[in-house]
Every structure is written in C-alpha cells, then in structure tokens.
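User: I want to check something. If I give you two sequences, will you return the structure for each one separately, not as a complex?

Assistant: Yes, each is folded on its own. Here is the first sequence with its structure:
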Amino acid sequence: MHLDKEKKLKYYFDKYHLDEIFSTKLMEKLDVVERKKNAYLTHQLSKFTHLYILVEGKLKVEFYNADGKLSVFAFATPLFLVGDLELFHSQGNSIINTISVQEPSVFLSIPLEMVKTFGLTDTRFLGFVCKQLSNKLFESSLLKSGAFLTVEENLKRFLYHDAEKNGDVLVLEKREYLASILGVSVRQLNRAIKNLNEKGIIISKNKQVKIIDYNALVKDIEF
C-alpha cells in the first residue's frame, strides 16, 4: 500500500476506529513504522522509548532467561500494544521482552514522553491500555492453568482461543515456538498434533494447523 503517512494513518484509524482511543493531542504525535519479516521491533533490556500498536502483521513475543534459555510467550496479531507492561513496571526504563516480526508488519508509534504527558490523563487511552493488559493477563493465566491438563488438552484449548482471535488456521513457523508457549517438548507437541489429526479434529499439513471439528475440539475441556 503506497500511501503517504497521513493517508496510512487515516486508513488504520478508520479500520480500527482509533479515534475512540486517541485524543487529538496523541493523534498528532503518532508515526507509522514498518518492519520486514524476521526483523526485530524491540530487544530485551534495550531502552524503552516508544509505545507501538500493531495494526498489520504478526509478532513473536519472547523472553531470554538469565541462563540464556528462550521462552516464547505469544504470537501477537492486531490490535496488539507493545510497551504497556513497561509503562507501569517499576523498571519501566527498559524493554521486558524481545519482539520479532513474523510477517511484514505495520505499527503506529507514540513517543513515551508524549504518552506520559497526554495519555496518562486520557480515560479513553487508559481504557485501551487496561484492556490490553487484561488480555495478556488472561492468556498468561490460561497457560499456567494448562499445566494441570494433558498436552493434548492444553493444545486443544490453545487452538480454540487462537481461533477466536485469528480464525481456524494456525500458521506454525517453527513447532519449537508453540511448544515453548505450551511448556512442553516438541516431541510431546508432535504427538498431540498427530492424535488430533487422527481423531479428525484438525488437519496438520506443512506449517498449517486447521480446525475442522470445533465440537470435538472443545469437548471435555474447561475454559
């Protein structure tokens, strides 16, 4: 889409009704940022300078522990806010997670100082931030409670909630990422995918997992 900045902003504002989120003051400070596939938007522990709203594309949110072990937290799709955790964190001068771009993506960026000046007193903007934090808390608690389920049950629940947001096809760039999100080994994940295939609940082919039987997917699973 070859549009200048103003036209791009108008396009995304109309698409997502962002005038219901941003005051005029904040709108004036927005910029459009584009990233290619496999690029990085943020790096863990780098300086926190901007909030980003994903309006097109897909992200991978990951965290490196002190021992260097990688944990994948989530795959994010629009509208996803980057920087809300840091905004209210006691160590808010640093980025918490490393975020990489899984497909060509577009963001709206806001300088942190402008957010502090105009956003923290704007009830509409704060409502949007709270909703984003609530979604992340819900997804985090969902994964933690999944520790008491079998791998297959945990996968079924993940697929159900992902389908609610992104449709019935899940694209798996690497199975290691999904295994990390679920807290299981790749071997356990592969076995669970194979079982769901054999039961006719999903079709797994190449890098795609498609749900074909929603009733069987949610059967006996507590949400």
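And separately, the second sequence with its own structure:
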Amino acid sequence: MSKYKIFVDGAVGTTGLRIFERLGAAEDIELLSLPESERKDLSARLAKVAEADLTFLCLPDEAAKELVAQAPETAKICDTSTAHRVNASWVYGFAELTGQREKIKTANRVAVPGCHATGYIALVRPLIEKGLLAADYPLSCHSLTGYSGGGKAMIAEYEADIRAEKYDAPRAYGLSLTHKHLPEMQALTGAQQPPIFTPVVADYYSGMLVTVPIPLSALQAVKSGEQITKMLADYYQGAPLIQVHPFAQLPEDGMLNANALSGKDNLEIFIYGNATQLLLAARFDNLGKGASGAAIQCMNIMLGREETAGLAL
C-alpha cells in the first residue's frame, strides 16, 4: 500500500507534537522528519515540503510566512499559525461552514482556524449567514481555556513544582481588546465589527468553553431558544465533528465544565436562556478542534481520506 508522505514543520511544539502523535499510528501515512541540526535550516525544510504530499506548519507567524514565500505553489500546506487566516489567497480550514469543505478539497493552501475563533465562528456565522442576526449587531464573547493554549512556556509555568500563587486562579488576558484571533472572528462570521472579546486562562491543561450572549430581541423572526437550536442543528446536520444539544439541556450539576472534551477532536454546541435572553456556548479542546484535530481534519479532506481518520471522537 502506498503511503501519504506528511511533513510536520514544528513537530516539537504543542500543536505539532499532537499532530505527529495522532498520525504516527496511521497505516497509510509516512511521517517525514529532519535531524535536530536541520530543524531551523530553511533549505532542508523546503526540501521536505517538496517531498511531502502535505506539510503542516506549526510555527510562529513570521517563520510560516518565510517558508510559504519560497515553497512550490503546488505544495499542499496546512498552516496552524495566525499568518494566513484572513489571506484571500488561502482557504479557511473550517469545513463545517457552508461551501467550505468543497474549497478545502481542492486547495493547496489551508489556514487552520484559531482556537477561540473556532467556538465563536461556530456559534455566530450561521446566525448572520441565515439572516437571523444583523451583521452590524455589537456582540461580546467570553472564552475560557486551559493553559496548554499558551504553548510550552505557559505549560512549564503552570506545571512547575514551585509556582506563583497567581496560577491558582483564572486569569483574564487580551486586555487591550486586540487579540490576534479577532480578524478571523470578524471576517469569517460576516460581521461588520469584531466582538468585545474577553479570553480567560485557568489552571487545567486543555479544553475550551466559548460563550456568546444575545438578547432575543436582536434576532430576526426568532421567538425562542428552541428555534435557534433547530436552526443550528440543521446547519450542522451531517457534520461528524459537531453536535448540537437540545435547547436548555443541562448537566446534572447545572454547570458546563470547560475540560469535558480534553483529548477529543469534536465540538459541542449548547443553547440556554429565557424569554428575553439567550446564551450560546461551544465546548471543545483547544488542542483538538481548536488546533491539531482541525488540522488533521483539513488534511484528510485535502488528501481524500475519511474526514475523521486519526481523530479522537
């Protein structure tokens, strides 16, 4: 059996390592690698890109741009950095959006969505696309994430034998309201402005809970949370990685824990509310559907593999 040759540029980072581990067990994939001495050698990396059937870039933005600028146009590349997510010449790697899976199938350049952006777009894009929410409506978004989203440096800070007391409590960040995910959160929802976005990191390894509050009065021709729930369920019907729960379905303790899908690659949507207000919530793993899982999903589509191959559901 012939195997797909896959190169993970940046396989020692958090996202790259999980991709490498996920694909390591696949019988139809051969993972290409470089010796330690050549991992920062651009020529050596470009040679692997040319050899591979597909390359994952798990690099800082500038390093990703540098490699892409010299890579063959025919090379299939999935970039997990922020560098190309709103670049018109790249395809955004959120397969569940209308028409996006077909674009990914034929693309050579796919930008993997950001973790916070994944939850926000999953909740808001269908509302604007279907005309239920005006594109100029001012939204806010709250997102809780595990510390693995900060990469190796933050993981080391949280897992140190001796650490500062501040790591015991949730910490708000992105306080300048200029988080790097905001451009894609606006562009991929069709909104005229980004949300007021408040991300929070807490003392657990991985998992994410993204919430968007909306007054019922802001929605067009919608009179209940059940209607929004049905619309979202219809929108994501047949999407193997997204599940929309029944309206107001509560856990036994009445609380949504953000780490419930840690280690998984799927995403859950919940809708709660009352006669005047709704709360839309997306729960997933920041390293799964929010990073490595989404990257592998895109790879599968680009190579014609089963969409969920190698994923943990």
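Because they were folded independently, the notes below concern the second chain alone. The longest helix spans residues 288-303. The mean pLDDT is 97.
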